[in-house]
Amino acid sequence: EALRRRLEKRIYIPLPDEEARLGMFKVNCSSIKLADDVDFRRLVKRTEGYSGADICSVCREASMMNLRDRLRKARTKGESGVALDVDRLRAEVEGRPVTMGNFEQAVKNVQKSVGTEDLRNSLIMTMHPLTSGLRDYVTAADHTRYDGLADGFIRVDVTHSNLQARVHDATLSLDAPISSVKQKLYKRNGTTVDHMQLFLRRGDGSTIFLYDDKLTLR
């Protein structure tokens, strides 16, 4: 973390979605002998928020468990490392397939390298040029959603996937209309716009853009 603080610029790269993670598991396990009970779809569900490097570590960790288990048994029997038949040990380990249990234990051992706080900060940095007071908005949006039937807000869980979706959707949905309004303001007033506030009128989805609390465009 101390090293990351010294970097001048950070670039946000979205984490892999379910289909991407499925492909990563297949590629990383292409040379590994797998047991019949290995279910990649289940592993994909268990690894939400994992990066490509994290998934690679999970596969490597799972593939090493048979070797670790064999060495543990050797130490229990009192065999020394020198006395072990390397060729026999390699053949014995390679002959044992990696099971779903190995993968599940590997997922427990390998922690996510990208946390929810990293994604939240990325959202703030991405949207900062477009709106002010975004930190308060993100803090609220992380924990609430509008329920039209109840005419109020209810608390919901936040996952890596919907945080990433907010970064992508908010950028696409706000960038084009803001650019359009800025052009209209420039043509009308002959001046450029540096700051804008965005308001969403609850219920009808209309967006109102205010500049200096004087000009309103719909």
UniProtKB/TrEMBL annotation:
InterPro entries (UniProt xref): AAA_lid_3, MT-severing_AAA_ATPase, P-loop_NTPase, TBCB_Ubl, Ubiquitin-like_dom, Ubiquitin-like_domsf
SUPFAM superfamilies: P-loop containing nucleoside triphosphate hydrolases (SSF52540), Ubiquitin-like (SSF54236)
Domain Ubiquitin-like: 153-209
Molecular function GO labels: alpha-tubulin binding; ATP hydrolysis activity
Domain annotation AAA ATPase AAA+ lid: ranges: 37-73
GO BP, one annotated term: post-chaperonin tubulin folding pathway
A Pfam family matched in the record: AAA_lid_3
Superkingdom, taxonomy of origin: Eukaryota
Any one annotated GO CC term: microtubule cytoskeleton
Listed name of the protein: Katanin p60 ATPase-containing subunit A1
Native organism taxonomy: Eukaryota, Sar, Alveolata, Perkinsozoa, Perkinsea
